[in-house]
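As the next step, I selected for study a record pairing a protein sequence with its backbone structure tokens, which the following lines show:
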Amino acid sequence: MDKLFKNVVNIFNQACKKADISKTIHTILKQPKNEIIVNFPVRMDSGEMKLFKGYRIQHNNILGPYKGGFRYHPQVNLDEVKGLAMLMTLKCSLAGLPFGGAKGGVKFNPKDFSISEIEKITRRFVHALGDNIGPNFDIPAPDMGTGAQTMNWMMDTYLNTSGSLDRQCLKGVVTGKSVKVGGTKGRAQATGYGVVMCIEEWAKQHNYKISDKTFIIQGFGNVGSWAAKRLDSLGAKVVAVNDCAGTLYMKEGVPVRQLTEYIAENGSIAGFMGQELLSREEFFSMKADVMIPAALENQIGEKEAHAAQVELIAEGANGPITNRADEILAEKDIQVIPDVLANSGGVIVSYFEWLQNRSNDYWHEHHVLEKLQDKIIKAYHIVHDLSIELDVSKREAAYIRALKNIDEVYNERGIFP
């Protein structure tokens, strides 16, 4: 069993007991409704034919259409996407969205393929999925290794394999598209901004000034870079960034916008301003106020938790902390804003994009971000208050609230037949 899936299931089981979820609903939710695996051929630029494996896990749709990202990564596997799909169900429920949870991906490293090959892989994947996705059934979005361009190709493929009379009504089949083809302003920065919005609320509760705090960020892709930009605009100091190349440490603060541009051109932090990089271990043992893990899952294990010298960890990534590490952090009184809350900004703004597509409307960016802040701060206080009321961690409180929402819907609707 994949470690992420095991971690999610363990917390899920604990939360079901504390939330007094019925055995029937527990049984329904502990496995996904649908596990779709497709193997599809794609002709490479060289003329060679290669076979790719793709996944779409549809966990639960009692609240609405399945919703969740597609990732392109060599480590994509069935159990990983099952765990991520379960997290999406909880994330959508906690945020009060009319969506269920799903996740998917293709097992390959996009860095090893040309743009034209990635486009062909994307289009063949969508074609292979067929009617397993749709704007009222299952709505994909970007994730690791994918972005707006990937979503544009997915939408275009879906539209061109649908009936001609319906094409203009189907743009909401995916979210995270570029604005010109039906995306929404504010979507690119939504996840990173949402993480910082939660941190800002935490700081208010502790009478802290964000501008007085130091931050370290693991991963500087879409989530990490946008979180850093928002922190920079608030006067906060990002002193370290870690990625696959190592750890960039700058005591006076990393020049965020310059680093973002550099990574876009060079692919990693290696060589930035001639700085000598520190190790991964030095990043996790670095003294700072707040850590934002915004890379892969399972990055903070026992060793990293023991080494941590921060006051708060806000999970920009999905499942970055293992179960045992969670316990160690709690023993050290290091607070954690869990992924199902902290990084829910992406799916919240995806919902706004879906609404705009359905009504053929376009919202101003400030309107999108105001509505994002309203939703994510409301969810933050629900989780915070419940964690105090039940004397549980914020992660358990988030799971409990999300599960209770789902349980209430099942109880009112009943189970067919």
Observations:
- The domain at 28-171 is CATH 3.40.50.10860 (Rossmann fold).
- The chain has two domains: 28-171, 189-337.
- Residues 37 and 55 are 5 Å apart (CA to CA).
- The chain has a mean pLDDT of 96.
